[in-house]
Automatic annotation (TrEMBL):
Transmembrane segments: none
Record keywords: Acetylation, Lyase, Mitochondrion, Transit peptide
Keyword Metal-binding in record: no
Coiled-coil blocks: none
InterPro entries: ClpP/crotonase-like_dom_sf (IPR029045), Enoyl-CoA_hyd/isom_CS (IPR018376), Enoyl-CoA_hydra/iso (IPR001753), Enoyl-CoA_hydra_C (IPR014748)
Protein's organism: Otolemur garnettii (Small-eared galago)
Protein name: AU RNA binding methylglutaconyl-CoA hydratase
Annotated GO CC locations: mitochondrion
Name of the gene: AUH
Taxonomic lineage: Eukaryota, Metazoa, Chordata, Craniata, Vertebrata
GO biological process, one term: fatty acid beta-oxidation
Family classification: Belongs to the enoyl-CoA hydratase/isomerase family.
Record keyword Lyase present: yes
Localization per Swiss-Prot or TrEMBL: Mitochondrion
CDD domains, sorted: crotonase-like
């Protein structure tokens, strides 16, 4: 969405109206804007609210709601007990270095679709269950067998799944404990937060194959680290380790790898636990306000914030938060 031109009041109002409408469309059925932004009922909900898978590698896990078959390329686990509300998507395709195959993309798409309608999900973590690898990008062996007419549609499917992950209404965290190249890094870039082990390797290396990033990398990397540096990394196909990635702002946290090989995942889990006590509606609306606001000018962004803030006012959670503060006790939010 384009920002309104400075000084053009009419264009600004039109732009603002469109953006607020887009913002509203994600807030859920029956909700209405207030004040000067009123007059338009909010469309169908596109928000995801619950889910929960988890994986802790070799460390014994507790509270898993279900077990999965070892041959599954994507393990979806809903954490329980004190981690209830956290869902872990574990990529488990060791023989293909966790590369994005047709089957893995199909499984990711199915899992993300389920998350969109799950009202119990509070945070999603994407990790690898294969030591030393997050995701090596597209499955080039499979790609080599495709004819030219198949490549475009398949890349479109990858892009659509990555976009769906980016548009999930709950916080998403990529735990990069190993190699994340090409589409693997694009998958991580779609997440709200990225954490990595210092030994991890990351890069958009597509130009080495005479192509360009096709899963959102040319757009999300500049937004994450700035245009000039993003161009340098894409043009050179350079690969960064965890410390270098942290220095340029590609990741939020870098950790020394542990014996189990899941240092980034453990940090992601710690972050997810920090998010759990907060109001579910507030978390969703905050993510929407930030995402939409970053694409527009400040004036329009503030209008989006106003529209989003208005959605928290009539909620039961807001009243519960005030009551809990008054009674000096932890709030018991229900996402209502």
């Amino acid at each position: 969405m384009a920002a309104a031109a400075p000084g053009a009041l009419g264009a600004l109002q039109v732009s603002r109206a469109r953006l607020v409408a887009a913002c509203s469309a994600r807030l859920g059925p029956g909700l209405r804007l207030s004040g000067s932004l009123a007059g338009r009922q909010i469309g169908p909900a596109i928000w995801a609210q619950g889910w929960a898978p988890s994986a802790r590698g070799p460390t014994p896990s507790r509270g898993y709601s279900s077990e999965v078959k070892t041959e599954d390329e994507l393990r979806v686990r809903h954490l329980e007990d004190e981690n209830r509300g956290i869902v872990v998507l574990g990529i488990n395709r060791a023989y293909g270095r966790n590369s994005l195959s047709k089957n893995l993309i199909k499984m990711l798409s199915k899992a993300v679709d389920a998350l969109k309608s799950d009202k119990k999900v509070r945070t999603v973590i994407i990790r690898s269950e294969v030591p030393g690898i997050f995701c090596a990008g597209a499955d080039l062996k499979e790609r080599a067998k495709m004819n030219s007419n198949e490549v475009g549609p398949f890349v479109s499917k990858i892009r659509a799944v990555i976009n769906d992950i980016a548009n999930l209404p709950v916080p998403t965290i990529a735990a990069i404990d190993g190699l994340a190249l090409g589409g693997g890094l694009e998958l991580a870039l779609a997440c709200d937060i990225r954490v990595a082990a210092s030994s991890a390797k990351m890069g958009l290396v597509e130009t080495k194959l005479a192509i360009i990033p096709g899963g959102g990398g040319t757009q999300r990397l500049p937004r994450a680290i700035g245009m000039s540096l993003a161009k340098e990394l894409i043009f050179s196909a350079r690969v960064l380790d965890g410390q270098e990635a942290k220095a340029v702002g590609l990741i939020s946290h870098v950790l020394e790898q542990n014996q189990e090989g899941d240092a980034a995942y453990r940090k992601a889990l710690d972050l997810a636990r920090e998010f759990l006590p907060q109001g579910p509606v507030a978390m969703r609306v905050a993510k929407l306000a930030i995402n939409q606001g970053m694409e527009v000018d400040l004036v329009t962004g503030l209008a989006i914030e106003e529209a989003c803030y208005a959605q928290t006012i009539p909620t039961k959670d807001r009243l519960e938060g005030l009551l809990a503060f008054k009674e000096k006790r932890p709030p018991r939010y229900k996402g209502e």
